[in-house]
Amino acid sequence: MSDVMSKSLGFAMEYIKGKTQPIDHPYTIHELLSAVSKNSNLKDNEILVLSKFLQQMKDHFNMCPLIRQRQSLVTLTYCCQMPAIKSVVKLLHDVAAVVITFVERAKSVKDKRLGYLALTSLADICDNEIVYLAVNTVVKDVASKSPAVITIALNCMVHIVSIDIIPVLLPIAEKRLSHSDGNVRAKSVMALHRMYLVGPEFVHSPQRHLKQALSDKDPEVMATVLPYVYDVLKINPELRSSFAPKLVHILKQVVKNRLPMYMSRQGVPAPWVQINIMKILLICVDNLKENDSLANILTEILNRGQSLNNTASYSVVAECTHLISRLYDAKHEAFQTVLGCMGCFLHSKHPNLLLVGLQLLSELTTVDSTCCVRYQDIIINSLSHPDMTVKKQTLNLIRVLTNSTNYKAICSHMIEQLKETSNDKYFTSNFSMQIASTAEKFSTEESWLLATLHSVLTSGGENVCPEACNKLQVCLSKASKSCIENEVNLCLKLLETSLSSVHLKLVVWVLGEYADYLVCENPNETVALICQCCLITFKNNKSLTADQRDVVIFGILNCVTKISAKIGNFDHEVMDMLTKLLKHTQSIMVHQKLKEFEVLLEKPNILKKIFTEEFEFDKNLSFLEDFISSSSVVAPEEQCESIGDSPQPLLKYEAYGHLQHGMVKTPEALLASVLPETAQPKVTGFLSKKAPEKGEAPRKWGQSGYLGVKEDPRPENSLSNALFGKSTSQTLNEALLNLSAVGNKNNDNDICDIMNDMLMTSQTTTDSGAAFDDK
């Protein structure tokens, strides 16, 4: 006996005994919303209410009357759109089984539709378990005799398709392509399209489905298959040539109004069918360039779109423009027709239509850059449009519109618009860079270019692109002397106004770099003017960061240093002025720069020599010869030996130390720790690291290191010879006796390390090795 039957019998017995309890019905949608809004903490309350609702559906759904069940399904569909539904996913699996049971028992089409709607909403949230539970129900309903039930089941199939169940559902959907009802065939196409998107490797020969649907007698089936055709041809270029003529023929029938009237919108015959077909033809451009009938069809679409001022006609004309810009050149009749249609977009007062027109005109300029000249006034006026998106799109057209005859008028107009948009950081940065690049590209007058760049810096404020300043610096480096003099005088006048930090930094750089062109009796006045302008800038622009302030002050210190070197000395009043600026910075670099300048003020000759005299650099660095000759690390080039032809390896990978308690100890250090001073050998040569005396021959770099003489300087009978590879039997025995004499419990480890090293480096006879083993 099932759980539902046992619960029903239990309630029946309680009813007979008079002990019935009221059933806790699931919430209706009004009850759900009122329960959620009771608590101020909506997120936690949503989870509690949803959990209670789903628990009610799980326990009491089948015992509720049919009307209450329908209300519960509507509420469940609404709940699946709530953000908190993901927190109660575990309860949805139990509820899904209840919903599937309702769909199987539903007797009317309305109940089937309502059940499948709730099931589809659950499938979008939960994993594949619900899909597996619903497969049998969907397959059973697709095999129904009622077209309405089949349509509802196929619609649900579109939502629950996964890669695991495609082999089960694919033959069923293909079979329904031959159904007598047009709606069933249309839904079958949608299901096949979804399966192709999820698992294209399972859908073999999709062109068979496409050709069958495109030739269907029902125009709705043909309209439904167009997105499927687009996705297939986009991945399979080899199929485009076979479908392009068929699509052109269908587009011709649509334009001639051969489709039913109910598919028309706002006087345009089947606008979405036209748009979808032209999207497909856009990827089949290579197969359409020799098709003459397509040009006539597109021209007819454009002529009709000019007469109808509505959104449907605008959409069709926009898609037609994309296709013409890819198919034909500027001399073609269709291109000239579409260029005339741009007026219906550009003259519109609606910002969306104006934006679309600017985008389409930008696309047409890729074919012919002069096509936008007729709309020059509209494009320039669009820079003052209140919509920021329209302004950004207009900038792309300005680049194409500007030429050598109108660049001055366009730049002046753009500078005026820059003043109004200086608050937008990113747009102002791009806009200022656009103006500077345009002026630099077309200008032939240095004075006009410099004045324009200064206007850009003044109008843009703090958001000006730094590259605009770089362009002015490059222009000055190529300018004549008279132009530089005018620029320096202009910068002095600009110091009397309020400048942005970016502009002030550039002005200060010009005054410092070209201080030779300054004409002033008292340089203190110039510095005072710079410091005053800096303080005004900091006062007006309180949003400046500490780094921006540091850069400005650092530039001022550089400028004052250069002016002092090129013009003359400053009084100590200048230091007081500069010290006031340090209140606005905490940078150590700026304070250090001021201290350096203070020291240089006391030595004006050195400062002037640094900036005025030219230094000759010694490429051979001969001033280092005395240092190199007394150094034990580096040798002069003329004293180096030629070791390139040496057969011996240049790098020697020999152990020279021992790891002792985390430290590397050389053999000398180990000997010093275990032998008395009288027993320690005196090591000379490269181990002593002693500089050569005056009477000695100059040392040379060789294969054995930096040596004063070529022969080995080490004594023959020394303990170091036993350690470093030139040991004899007598020397080795003496070393072993010395080590044995000083050995004790405290230094056993060190002595063992030395003996191991002697074993590895000694080249003695078998008797010596035996003596070593005995010791």
Question: Can you describe what's shown?
Answer:
This protein is an all-alpha fold and 775 residues long. Helix content is 64%, strand content 2%. The protein is built from 38 helices and 4 strands. The strands form 2 sheets. A two-stranded antiparallel sheet has the order 1-2. Strands 3-4 form a two-stranded antiparallel ribbon. A hairpin with a 2-residue loop joins β3 and β4. α10 runs parallel beside α12 (219-235), α13 runs parallel beside α15 (292-307) and α29 (546-566) packs parallel to α31 (588-601). The radius of gyration is 45 Å and the shape is extended. The model is unreliable at 15-21, 632-636, 638-646, 655-665, 678-691, 706-729 and 763-775 (pLDDT under 50).
Summarize the structure.
With 775 residues, this protein is mostly helical.
Task: Fill in the keyword field for this structure.
775 residues; mainly alpha; two-stranded antiparallel ribbon; two-stranded antiparallel sheet; extended; disordered C terminus
Taken as a percent bin, the fraction of beta residues is under 5%
**How far is the N terminus from the C terminus?**
96 Å
Individual helix count: 38
What structural class should be given to the helix and strand makeup? mainly alpha
Largest sheet: 2 strands, antiparallel
Helix content: 55-70%
Tell me the strand order in the biggest sheet.
1-2
Low-confidence stretches: 15-21, 632-636, 638-646, 655-665, 678-691, 706-729, 763-775
Number of strands: 4
| Mean pLDDT reading | 78
Rough shape? extended
Q: Please tell me how large the radius of gyration is.
A: 45 Å
